[in-house]
Amino acid sequence: MPSIDFVISNPGHHVAMMQPVMAELKQQGGYHCRVISLCPFRGFPSPAARFPMADAFVSIPERQIRSSPSSGKQGGKRSDWLRGIAREVSWRTMLQRPLQHTFHTPPALVVLPNDAAFPYDHIVKMLHGRDIPFLLMQEGIRFPLPTDKEQDTYGSSGAAAIAAWGESSAAYFRAQGALPETIHCTGSPRFDHICQTDWRSQAGQLQAEHGFGQTNLLFLSNPIDDQGYCTTAEKLALVQRFLAEITPLFADPGFHLIIKLHARESLAEFQTIAAAASYPHRITVLGQSPLYPLFTVAQAAIVLASTVGLEALLFGLPLAVLEIPGVGFVHDYVSAGAALGLGWQRPLAPQVQALLCGQGVDTAVTAAYLQNNLAARADAVERVARLITTLTR
Predict the structure, then answer these.
(1) Quick one: three-class SS letters along the chain?
(2) What is the pLDDT of residues 120-147, one digit of tens each?
């Protein structure tokens, strides 16, 4: 019976992309499936309850080592050097030995969400040293990060196969040097779940709980400070400036702003900013609240630099990207015509109002963009499972 190891380090999207594939393999029968969770190392609790079908669940380390994930690629060369030393120490003291023990009996295949970021780069070297093949399941949209040279090697570490989201990602991996025959456009299993679920009931619950308005704007923040685009203080100042700029929109009594945070962002910091705004009672800041029902209650969405922009488009929302000063519009949402670019050279409120009215949104362009980015939106689980079957046959 082939043994398949699924490695995760994020209890959110890693689970969403790997759990349904494991469930499909177990339903087919003939596979021993194990989860190797690095979530405690990242500061997250291990989501063992989400994998009842797993034959084994291993947490490394066994206990959560800090209360929240670390942040910050915010330093210079010295900071990078110190972070490199810290990573090497943590690898040798916390990860290397338990992973060596875990892979003592080699599985037929290891499924990874990343092959470049720490500690996946070390894991890949370990797998190559033991002749254990791995499948790289694309975890998010790809764009260069200003201070993260690791990402320059994403997809170029000799995976037996790469499960790419779509043709745009396949082109990225080919440019990375991956052999064309190893790249398979499977879509992402997490999007199967999005498209196959009716979110209206949960949306109604959130509407009743938070008292959203009739016109809801969804601002989807993410840790652009960790990504190296700015410092945390600069990101918070950017959000504060955004709130000040859109103040005229609150003249509409039905207008409500929903700020949804990434798990690595501070709820308290954003709540403080919202409380100081002109209309704090019509601004809701959400941390751990479910994301997808919010797409159902919103009339438009704004992102900074995140995969959630793609998810907003899947829900049919008009999308905009807020310009990061000194950087511009991250990823290709704006350049490809799938999103509006909110620039600081003009008053922001009229631009956001146009977004809410759907002005400048070309549905044909958006549809083509989604097709190019997601090869499948209904059967990605089956496609990835078939790829695993082929690799382990």
Answers:
(1) CCEEEEEECCCCHHHHHHHHHHHHHHHHCCCEEEEEECHHHHCCCCCHHHCCCCCEEEECCCCCCCCCCCCCCCCCHHHHHHHHHHHHHHHHHHHHHHHHHHCCCCCCEEEECCCCCCCHHHHHHHHHHCCCCEEEECCCCCCCCCCCHHHHHCCCCCCCEEEECCHHHHHHHHHCCCCHHHEEECCCHHHHHHHHCCCHHHHHHHHHHHCCCCEEEEEECCCCCCCCCCCHHHHHHHHHHHHHHCHHHHHCCCEEEEEECCCCCCHHHHHHHHHCCCCHHHEEEECCCCCHHHHHHCCEEEECCCCHHHHHHHCCCCEEEECECCCECCCCCCCCCCCEEECCCCCHHHHHHHHHCCCCCCHHHHHHHHHHHCCCCCCHHHHHHHHHHHHHC
(2) 999 999 999 999 999 999 999 877 667 5
Spatial neighbors of 135 by CB under 8 A, at least 6 apart, are 109, 110, 111, 112, 159, 160, 161, 162, 163, 387, 388, 391
Q: How far apart are CA 262 and CA 301, in angstroms?
A: 15
Q: What is the CB-side half-sphere exposure of residue 317 using CA atoms within 13 A?
A: 29
Per-residue tokens: 221: 């923040």
d(CA 2, CA 21): 15
Given phi > 0 = left and psi -120 to 50 = alpha, else beta, which region is 243?
Answer: alpha
- DSSP lists the bridge partners of residue 34 as 5, 56
Tokens (6 digits) for 9: 């380090």
Q: Retrieve residue 158's tokens.
A: 């000799």
**Burial of 96 (C-beta count, 10 Å sphere; 0-12/13-18/19+):** middle
Show the tokens assigned to 239: 């959000």
Residue count of the chain: 393
Closest residue by Cα to residue 40 from 18, 57, 65:
65
What is the CB neighbour count within 10 angstroms for residue 243?
A: 21
Residue 314: alpha-carbon gap to chain centroid: 15
As a whole number of angstroms, the distance between CA 231 and CA 252 comes to 33
Q: Specify the pLDDT at position 251.
A: 97
pLDDT, tens only, 55-112: 999 999 988 776 554 444 455 555 667 878 989 999 999 999 999 999 999 999 999 9
